[in-house]
Amino acid sequence: MSQFINKREDVVTEAIDGVLALSGGALTRLDGYPHIRVVLRSDWDKSKVAIVSGGGSGHEPAHVGFVGKGMLTAAVCGDVFASPSVDAVLAGILAVTGPAGCLLIVKNYTGDRLNFGLAAERARAFGLNVSMVIVGDDIALPDLPQARGVAGTLFVHKIAGALAERGADLETVTTAARHVIAGTRSIGMSLDTCRVPGSPKEDRIPEDKAELGLGIHGEAGVEQIDFAGARASVATMVERLAAVMGEGQHVALINNLGGTSVLEMSVLAHDLLGSAVGARISHTVGPAPLMTSLDMQGFSISVFAANAAELALLKTPVPIAAWPGVSEVRPIAVAALPDGLTPIMPMPSNHAATRAFLINCCNVLIAAEQDLNALDAKSGDGDTGSTLAGAARALISAIDRLPLSDHTQLLRAIGLELSQTMGGSSGVLLAIFFAAAGDGASSGLPMREALRAGLARMQEIGGAHVGDRTMVDALAPALEALGESMAAAAAAARKGANFTATLTRAKAGRAAYINARQLEGHVDPGAEAVARLFEHLAA
């Protein structure tokens, strides 16, 4: 798969210059490209302890994105997933270190330890006061002699940076950094590996698996486990975190490894707070991309048992866009619906045959979920099946609240239920259909004619007609043939649905934005749902 890069050898320098150009003058780089890539604060005057970190690129926004007042003084960048050279690290130290000294924050990888360590020794030979701490927060590989440094490093950056900005001396800053390191634990999980620029992607993780403890450079994790959704994934990680977490309240850093959507990250945050350790998490950082692994579809959780002073340092505001701040975990606030929007449902009543009929119809849509999603992926956004199945499940859940013995009120109640539980335009249109059908039935129309009245109202408001490649292509002929028999209605619905596969232009719905080549040969998913429903009823 292609990537938005120019040449592999230029990707890091061009990315750095892109950040610098948009920093508003807040960031500066040292000369020496491409061998020395050091980004530092433009306002730095060497009057306080300097905080320097870095490592391989590909973890953006770490580390350049955290250079600024209250966090890093300088970041030293290597190639993608490769430690910077000793000379590059030394250049960074010499550029920012004054009489107050410098703290190096190093992630526990052999290359980083060696290059930063030797650079520190050479800086000391110049007479500079340099100390170094090594972060090893990853608990995924318990048998590893030296734990890897991963996203928990951000806790160290923030607390050490805040202390240095307040004027603390090097010994105080170093001691605080070591205390944070000792109390931080992290673990990650991913559904896929990352793509290193200019290199083929390693497809190591099967479709139905997740890898626990995948490294931020794409290293293999401790094991591949069956993937069973977000909640189960979080529970697996929490089980391991809980075994090493200290007592008391913790701050959780929820890190996007680069390729996980914002929507998914919010679900993961929800599941973390509802997990076995959720009650022990008082504050969070994120969810956000903080220390990524290029485009890896994964996430990590870091926990730190911050005391009151450390929590205050974490909360100290910084003018750094990549740092999302610290949020306090509070119960979800729920406000009542405004007057007039609270639904007034008719009195529930039972009717065994109607109950069975409705549940069977709903089960047809639930069973078709994946097939309809696959069809919709050809001409839309791939969610028609999930939308209909979700509404069907909601209707089953509401079955005891429905007026099953009064079909006129039942149609209206179904319309109301769909308007609340079914998303998208299809939910609105079907709510209109059932509400109008209920109105027709209340005026004395037979059921078939009431349903046709509902269809007419739906077409009037939605604008779709037969031939526009929508569910109307199956629903309209089915209701017309319903006067003959259910079998005739099913045959008409199937014929209408199949007809949509021959239409290369949609005049309504999301498929109207799709080109003819993508539409040809694919049945409209809404029409297919209608056909399957009538076929089930005729069976």
Strand content: 5-15%
What is the strand arrangement across the widest sheet?
9-8-7-12-10-11-13
How would you name the CATH homologous superfamily of the largest domain? Dihydroxyacetone kinase, domain 1
CATH architecture of the largest domain: 3-Layer(aba) Sandwich
Largest sheet: 7 strands, mixed
How many angstroms does the end-to-end distance come to? Answer: 46 Å
Work out the number of β strands.
13
| DSSP summary: helix tally | 18
Give the rounded overall mean pLDDT. Answer: 91
Written overview of the protein:
With 539 residues, the protein is of the alpha/beta class. It folds into two domains: 8-328, Dihydroxyacetone kinase, domain 1 (Rossmann fold), CATH 3.40.50.10440; 352-538, Serine Threonine Protein Phosphatase 5, Tetratricopeptide repeat (Alpha Horseshoe). 43% of the residues lie in helices and 14% in strands. It has helices spanning 11-21, 86-96, 110-125, 153-165, 170-182, 230-242, 262-273, 308-315, 352-367, 369-379, 384-397, 407-421, 424-442, 447-462, 472-481, 486-500, 516-519, 525-538, and strands spanning 27-29, 38-41, 50-57, 74-80, 102-107, 130-135, 184-190, 209-212, 223-226, 250-256, 281-288, 298-304, 326-328. The strands form two sheets. Strands 9-8-7-12-10-11-13 form a seven-stranded mixed sheet, with helices on both faces. Strand 1 (27-29) and strand 2 (38-41) form a beta hairpin. Helix 11 packs across helix 12, helix 14 runs antiparallel to helix 15 (472-481) and helix 15 (472-481) runs antiparallel to helix 16 (486-500). The longest helix is centred in the C-terminal third of the chain and has 19 residues, at 424-442. The two termini are 46 Å apart. Residues 508-516 have low confidence and may be disordered.
